TrEMBL record, chains A, B:
Keywords: Folate biosynthesis, Lyase, Pyridoxal phosphate. Pathway: Cofactor biosynthesis; tetrahydrofolate biosynthesis; 4-aminobenzoate from chorismate: step 2/2. Pfam families: Aminotran_4. This is Aminodeoxychorismate lyase. The keyword Secreted does not apply. Involved in the biosynthesis of p-aminobenzoate (PABA), a precursor of tetrahydrofolate. Converts 4-amino-4-deoxychorismate into 4-aminobenzoate (PABA) and pyruvate. One of its GO terms (molecular function) is 4-amino-4-deoxychorismate lyase activity. It is an enzyme of class 4 (lyase). Its EC number is 4.1.3.38. It comes from the Bacteria. InterPro entries: Aminodeoxychorismate_lyase_IV, Aminotrans_IV, Aminotransferase-like, BCAT-like_C, BCAT-like_N, Class-IV_PLP-Dep_Aminotrnsfr. Homodimer.
């Protein structure tokens, strides 16, 4: 019998964190959500690279943390656990300590690994596409927090709480200047006059691992890639629109409020490339 | 023998939260830090009122949560525990559940009470004043998160990590438009041409309970109060500068980088009023 989840805290089976952990007190940490396929953690190096960038930004010592995480994951793999689950979430906090907001001078980061089953999408949104909406919440701009996947995610919670209609699969977020940023849980890309476009994430948003992978793959196959600051009208004029993250892979967007699209050729090509890369990685 | 801390989770002695708690996963919650004096929780009603405002903003059901918190606190008081400690921290999260960022439709909030000893300030900063600095980090602006004391506090952690010199007791924060907001752990007030001035907190910052108490007390004693958007130069031209929060009460600011002040008459008057109010509340 396979249990629903398996969680490790600092390498040991555990299911709780102390109240004094700074992840809980201040959102002082980072996370990664990684897809598991036949016992392999997909794009693992890219995930750990982003985690390292996050650690560096927050001044959480990345070593021996990253080495320990790799060892945990290798052990879970050789024990056959990775093959039993579909999702690996890594959560890293600055650990316990410090005085108020002041971080301890020598933090002992906490590392958590959570294995769980993959969410199921019986309506096959990767094939048929999804309807999305525009959120009212506007993301705050901060170059200090932009790009990394930190634990202070209350904006995403509030944005995702704006709707409960299960037929709407994602909400688009603009920033305070009304430029496009991302979805609540995904990155946003579109095709416009043959170019693959996506918002620059230097002021807000999370630099998704699949997003970055797709941008470099697109360049490799000769597709022009453009990152910039775009108003909503730019998206509405697009030929194809898609969302991506490490669990959904790529979902074509077929409707945003009154605007609709069909899943397009570039979207299908990128879906195919990602599938190939997953098999190879 | 008095232990260092006493912590209750949902009314029971406990020292950890489950990994699935949304406070840890997303900073999805709120907190309050309350001073204890001779077994009384100072300005408790105002703290619980701000907590309620936070719950309403985040759509965390405030009841029966607030009733349970009051019952916990009353019990700690009648057991004599409040008299043994100097600080009561309340932490409220949306609890466990939901799918990703989507909050559960009927959240079961988690409530945590943490009793600890009061930090000691042997150099008597309330009397002699403190030196402060200007932080490099600029607070992000978001009317969705402004004012409430939520758990997504990574900006404060990063700002407080900018210095370790213990002679510098606080760091001032500007917002992305370079207007004054607050300190990393305190609110900022100053006296200019007889008026008590403080930044408006509708775009960022925490609406401190002591700050709001002082603003209404100042009005009551005929002091003109002004909330606005101010550049740093406004502060530098002030006659008196002070910081406040629920643990430090009021600290006069005696130096910000090269600019210096002496603790002034309005500061002393407000310190006296606050002390009286504490004895009466």
């Amino acid at each position: 019998m396979i249990s629903d989840t398996l969680t490790l805290v600092d390498g040991e089976v555990g299911d709780s964190l102390p109240l004094g952990d700074r992840g809980l007190a201040y959102g002082d940490g980072l996370f990664e959500t990684i897809q598991l396929l036949d016992g392999r953690a997909l794009l693992l190096d890219a995930h750990l690279k982003r985690l390292r960038r996050g650690c560096e930004r927050l001044a959480i010592p990345p070593q021996p943390l990253l080495t320990s995480l790799r060892a945990d994951i290798a052990r879970l793999g050789s024990d056959g656990e990775l093959a039993r689950y579909g999702v690996l979430k890594i959560l890293v906090t600055r650990g316990v300590g410090g005085r108020g907001y002041l971080p301890p001078p020598d933090p002992a980061p906490t590392r958590v690994l959570m294995l769980s089953q993959r969410p199921e999408y019986p309506d096959d949104p990767a094939q048929h596409g999804v309807r999305i909406r525009l959120c009212q919440l506007r993301l705050a701009q901060s170059p200090w927090l932009a790009g990394i996947k930190h634990l202070s995610r209350l904006e995403q919670v509030l944005a995702r709480a704006e709707w409960r209609d299960p037929a709407i699969r994602e909400g688009l977020l603009l920033d305070q200047d009304r430029y496009l940023v991302e979805g609540t849980m995904s990155n946003l890309l579109w095709v416009s006059q043959g170019r693959l476009c996506t918002p620059r994430l230097d002021l807000c948003g999370v630099e998704g691992v699949v997003r970055n992978h797709l941008l470099s793959r697109a360049s490799e196959i000769g597709l022009e890639v453009e990152e910039g600051r775009y108003p909503l009208s730019q998206l509405e004029a697009a030929d194809e629109v898609m969302l991506c993250n490490s669990l959904i892979d790529i979902w074509p967007v077929v409707a945003l409020d009154a605007r609709s699209w069909a899943p397009g050729a570039v979207t299908r090509r990128l879906q195919g490339l990602l599938k190939e890369d997953y098999l190879a990685c």
